[in-house]
Specification:
- By secondary structure, this protein is mainly alpha-helical.
- The chain has two domains: 59 residues, Orthogonal Bundle (Arc Repressor Mutant, subunit A), CATH 1.10.10; 159 residues, Tetracycline Repressor, domain 2, CATH 1.10.357.10.
- It has eleven helices and no strands.
- The chain is globular and about 55 Å long.
- The protein starts with a helix and ends with a helix.
Length: 222
Amino acid sequence: MNSVAVFNQRARSPEQKEKRRRALLEAAETYFLEVGYEACSMAKLAKRAGVVKGTLYLHFKTREELFLTLYEQSLIRWSQVFIDCLSDSMTSKAYAQMLYRTAISDGAFLPLLIRLEHIIEHNVEIPRLIRSKRVFIRQVEAVAVPTSTSLNLSKTQANEVVKTMGVLLIGATRADQGPSLDNEALPEDVQDLIDSFSSEPLFVKNAVRIIEGIRAEAVSII
């Protein structure tokens, strides 16, 4: 059944309401990927989905609550993709590269993660925020288990690695938000400087340092 048919049906049962909610989220993510965070509006989303704006607010109390739900959805989706890519005894560099590339390949995950704490979480009710934090805790724990095996770390160390990688991702990917100079003829020294600040090498280099630092701390304690 397509999304238009779902929207045109009156949602009566819990199953029908959940189906409509999923269809709205699918429409919202498609819209977000097309126009970006700032250009998204509930009124335009409702029009695209073929529902009145009030229908959106039956499921999501604010625009930011909708985006928080999209973030949780993308976090769970990315986590599973990343976990599936992990293998036993990976080098720190291979682990960091895989984490970066899987995060970048999910079009919604990083743009929402970057805006999460500074924008999105500021306009949702506290109970909803608490539920979201618990989703994050569960996903960190889910990723930490195979991370422990892949990097030969304790569960506590792996948990610390996973949480720190999220912070590093936000910082590193902001380095790509300057003006695009891809088609410009730049002096070699300027091009080298720009390349050194592109997000992937910046992320991978510092991720390796963090992973090895966490590993070294455990050795020094012993």
